[in-house]
Amino acid sequence: MPIPPLYEGELTGTTRRFELTAQTGQAEILPGVITNTWGFNGSFLGPTLYMRRGETIEMTVRNNVTEPTVVHWHGLHLPAAADGGPALAFAPGESWSPTWTVDQAAATCWYHPHPHEVSALHAYRGLAGGIVIADDESDALDLPHAYGEDDIPVIITDAKFTEDNQLDETIDTTYGLLGTTPVINGITKPRFTATTRRIRLRLVNGATMRFHHLTLGVPFRVIATDQGLLDAPAEVDAILLSPGERAEILVELEPGKDLTLRSDGVPDNGGLEKGETANGFGLKDTFDLLTIVAPDESAPELGAVPGQLVSVEKPDATGATEREFRLNGFQINEQSMDMNRVDFVIDRPGIEVWRVTNENSDWPHNFHVHNARFMVDNADGSEMEFTAGWHDTVYVPPLSTLILLVDIGYYPDPMLAYMFHCHMLFHEDEGMMGQFVVAEPDQEVQLAGAHHH
Ligand SMILES: [Cu+2]
User: Fold this and answer.
1) Judging by beta carbons within 10 Å of its beta carbon (0-12, 13-18, 19+), is residue 340 exposed, middle or buried?
2) Model pTM?
3) pLDDT tens readout for residues 303-358
């Protein structure tokens, strides 16, 4: 299995500098077949960015592809000017240099494009990569930490191919750009040969539309969700990742017993009424994604997994501002994305309570909030969802309402917005997205155009 290079940037004191170039190239996704692709600092996908809590990040992104694009740091809490929303898209030949301070717990995040109406296409062509945020607390835990050896990124995307083995960019008007061939770290059906009896997989569902209900044929432990470590490892038989979601899992390996990471079909069609629609969204599809070759007998025995990880406490939402989001078709609250409309302004730090309802009976949606983390307080009708811990993206099953306790990063800027949207990227591109601004209480909110050079 290819392991994306770990890119630690250039560290000066506590400032870490990164340079990313979005570029065109060619990759061997299928064995022996050359396909035209896009990537960051390479031909397909991108390096894994490493950053630590407390550091200042100075990022430069160059656009060497053929269309305007922009990069969103999915899961990061940062100023709107660094968030990479559609208003910040920049042209081929130009660059963009956002900066921010890492002020969040250790987590597996990722980066991908967010240009208006073409996010799915740009991600599908290969503009996606992982982000590892580390901190002292997570480093001190006895968990696998050796990148590429026992701490392994698993970036799940997908493709469908034309007869001449190029990426088929045909977008279905109902189901979007649903790849039919899963791609793991850039290739199909990889094999990872383990040298240790326990590995940590950093699972990223980077597919534009596809859900993955992931199994290994044996129980495994979830140690982290989108926004970081859980309070304690949770043993499960499967985990559902909707597009954009991440999880970190620990897998115990016994010599001679190889395992297969499978996408096993979403139980109960994800709550969709009609089997036919569930087929269209690929919810019944099954795939072998990754073979994990067990270590040999010489691999040392390991101690127990820590019983406790980090402190995760449900926030107090007494007196919190409440907001409602009704997902229906390609709209949220009967409105489509308009880059000139601000749906609401958040003018203080603290917790908000967001009620998110999927009003469709036979369409799945999920919900992602930029610059935020949330807990799922009450998930009726969503038994298949793993709802412990902090998230930034969550599946919203048909005809269900989730109550999210949302913790927004407080970086007041009255001129630039953050997004909330369905992360099924075809839905987002069709307008299933809105904007909020974080400002100081007395600030006048007026959106400005992009600032870049
Ligand atoms: Cu949706």
Assistant:
1) exposed
2) 0.97
3) 999 999 999 999 999 999 999 999 999 999 999 999 999 999 999 999 999 999 99
CATH of domain 6-139: 2.60.40.420
Q: Ligand 1 center to residue 380 CA distance, Å?
A: 18
Give the distance (Å) from ligand 1 centre to CA of residue 427.
5
Cα–Cα distance, 74 to 8 (Å, whole number): 18
Mean pLDDT of 89-111: 98
pLDDT band, residue 382 (cuts 50/70/90): low
Q: How far is the CA of 441 from the centre of ligand 1 (A)?
A: 32
From the CA of 101, how far away is ligand 1's center (Å)? 31
Strand 6-7, strand 48-52: pairing: parallel
14 CA → ligand 1 middle, Å = 39
CA of 363 relative to ligand 1 center, distance in Å: 8
Nearest C-alpha neighbor of 108 from the set 353, 317, 389: 389
Q: Ligand 1: distance of its center to the CA of 322 in Å?
A: 22
CA of 334 to the centre of ligand 1 (A): 13
Rounded to the nearest angstrom, the distance between the alpha carbon of 367 and the centre of ligand 1 is: 8
| Topology of the domain covering 151-293 | Immunoglobulin-like (2.60.40)
Q: How far is C-alpha 317 from the geometric centre of its chain's CA atoms?
A: 26
Range 322-438 classified under CATH 1.10.1200.10:
no
**Domain range summary for the chain, segments of one domain joined by +:** 6-139, 151-293, 322-438
Instruction: Identify whether the C-beta of residue 207 lies closer than 8 Å to the C-beta of residue 184.
Output: no
Identical topology for domains 6-139 and 322-438: yes
